[in-house]
């Protein structure tokens, strides 16, 4: 017969309330205490070997061009780790690369591992990449990606509204000819940002010109090199650009300055993410600040709810970026 919480209290020396809080991963129980209680719970048969004690953060790579080249993700991972520790779970960091021969086998092993829940950092996913993670055998949350189906819990950025907000900031500064610095690798987040950019232009009766869309690499140096080549074509530039992210914006800014353009007097630029580089760039980059550390924490909170069986409702939680005004945008003079 399964022993009681009161019996576990006697075995461990902690109060029944503390034992109950630890077993339900509630806040306020430190890791050392939780470890003692969980060990006693497993040793006594109160918990089965399949009880969830760790949360895996699985970083998905399709080509690495987004995940590997930006400081955005270390901050997200730091928040994830903090919240795992707070709730008394072990955090395990895993990597899966779709280019590897044993990719599908690796994913299945991760999902079917006993005693763990999974959060997938799915920024680079496209098309049917999510199919392998459907109907998971463990509690699972998708992070920084979403699916039109209603079967998977997700935490994501409100990309479209944030991009609309960024573009409208340029419009408020009297820019009517606004271009788009387009990341060459089209993750779903970028496509949503383009939608937000288009919505803002349409709302204010401004044209969305194909010639104002400049496609560049998603790395800072790649964006710099690609923008140099585009500028050598002597293309007429818009008075302002919305960029898919800060890496692209900063690379393009370097190329523009090298070719003699003044920022923001000749060309204004706004980015997306608020990377640490943005604050120290010259000029300092105006951007949309994404609460990346909090995103990691929210994903852990959601998966803890699934572990504890609190509800069966599927949710998609959107975090909302905020506008950070610095020096790379100015009022356009006709």
Furnish the topology, listing elements before pairings.
Elements: H1 5-12, H2 16-23, H3 31-43, E1 54-61, H4 72-87, E2 90-97, H5 103-112, E3 116-121, E4 140-143, E5 153-157, H6 159-172, E6 178-183, H7 188-203, E7 213-216, H8 220-232, E8 240-243, H9 246-258, E9 268-270, H10 276-280, E10 287-289, H11 292-307, E11 316-319, E12 322-324
Parallel strand pairs: 1-2, 1-3, 3-4, 4-5, 5-11, 6-7, 6-8, 8-9
Antiparallel strand pairs: 10-12
Describe the structure.
This protein is an alpha/beta fold and 334 residues long. The protein has three domains: 5-43, no CATH class; 54-157 and 291-320, Rossmann fold; 159-290, Rossmann fold (3-Layer(aba) Sandwich), CATH 3.40.50.2300. The protein contains eleven helices and twelve strands. The protein has a six-stranded parallel beta sheet with strand order 2-1-3-4-5-11, with helices on both faces. It is elongated, with a radius of gyration of 24 Å. The protein starts with a helix and ends in a 10-residue tail after the last strand. The mean pLDDT is 89.
Tags for this model:
334 residues, six-stranded parallel beta sheet, alpha/beta, Rossmann fold, elongated
